[in-house]
Amino acid sequence: MAAPRFWLAIVLTGFGTGVSAAALTLILQAVQHQAWPGASLLEAASQAPPWRHILVLLGAGLATGAGQIVLVRLTSGNSIDITEAIWFSAGRLPALRTLGSAVLSVVVVGMGASLGREGAPKQAGAVIANILSDKGGLSDEQRRLLVACGAGAGMAAAYGVPLGGALFALEVLRGILALRLVLPALMTAVIATATAWLVLPNAPTYFIPQFEASIANMASVLVIGPVAGLVSVAFVRLVAWGDRNRPRGWWRLVAPVLALGLLGAISIPFPQLLGNGKDIAQLAFDDQLPLALLGALLILKPAATLMCLGSGVPGGLFTPSLALGALLGGLVGHVCAPLLPGVQPALVAVMGAGAVLAATTQGPISAVVLMMELTGQDRSFIVPLMLAVVIATIISRVIEPRSIYDARLTDAEIAERQRLREPPSRK
After folding, report:
1. Which end of the chain has the lower number of beta carbons within 10 A, N or C?
2. Residues 247, 307 within the same domain
3. Can you name the residues that pair with 116 across neighbouring β-strands?
């Protein structure tokens, strides 16, 4: 009876995650429309008066602080990261606190916090999988897989990337790409994505032009690959530092207000800093950012993300990492243009986005597939993208074994996770 119960849980997890992802996305869109009326967050923020930047972000800070205090007081379970739960708690998560954090996340990201929106549907999918594991009496190993599939399905449904979401669940969250795990991950992600498509649009997240296959473009891989790997190491380590130093006690109420208030002030001259970074990644893919602005945003955008994370604001790191790579690639492309005539900065931005995404998540296969699904294209960039991803991931793994999703793990926990990943030796 174990197998039928497990597959029923897979189907229900996929459906429940798709409904949750659609609902959370609609909440985010409604909050953003009220806070920043306009066609897009960047367009609305660019035209908004300075007082709106300050008041909206201060409001987001107050909502974060109050929400965190309430969640701590009303729930007895401690906060736990999804990756940590999968590896060391058999996927068990405090349901109320995790779902409360998910809703709070989409509210403050919709108001302009510089974090990703994928964190909320991932959390919802993981909680649904955990509850169904309890109801179905699943084993710890089945629970680990189901929770990883639920979290990956949340990302798949939020961005419309079923294959990438399934691979993300296995490669990044579960840490094992095995044939026996593929079908559950695929089914969960497909059901969740198809369910969400009943409400959310079925369209690429980013639109990119057709790129030329040229020697100059291929040569730029030798620059963006290593640079992306080194920048990713620095970003992961800063994420780890910020996560370790999150505020505690009543400082949970003060720190988000200070951090988001400062973000609101800086966003007056730099409205691109607001939100998860989708708009500025698209501008980099279109090569519509001047060199000086690229350089400024390359410093300010990750700084804003780390400031939000370190102050206790809940949110994801997927799109901020992709945006960091796009900005890095755009800058590298413009710097290389005089030395490599014919290089296309927009293509280098795409390569940078994929390379940083792969290196920060330690998931090269899922990163390549996600870039293909997010853009709806592959032929014009797949070869240089794969080379950049491989180079960046090798460099980052040699220097830093952690990803942005396991940054809070200690060295001992990283070693234990690696031991658990290794197949048992045969004597």
Report:
1. C
2. yes
3. 316
Using CA atoms, how far apart are residues 26 and 30, in angstroms rounded to an integer? 6
Distance CA 291, CA 141 (A): 50
Nearby residues of 216 by Cβ (< 8 Å), 6 or more positions away: 340, 341, 342, 343
Write the DSSP string, 180-241: HHHHHHHHHHHHHHHHHHTTS--S-S---------HHHHHTHHHHHHHHHHHHHHHHHHHHH
Q: Say if residue 247's pLDDT is above 80.
A: yes
Rounded to 5 degrees, what are φ and ψ at 116? Answer: -85, 160
pTM greater than 0.85: yes
Q: What are the phi and psi torsion angles at 316 (to 5°)?
A: -95, 170
Regarding whether 316 and 223 lie in a shared domain, the answer is yes
DSSP category for residue 116: B
Spell out a b/e string for 79-92, using b for 16 or more CB atoms within 10 Å of the CB, else e. bbbbbbbbbbebbb
CB 362 within 8 A of CB 242: no
CATH code (residue 155): 1.10.3080.10
Distance separating alpha carbons of residues 260 and 251, to the nearest angstrom: 14
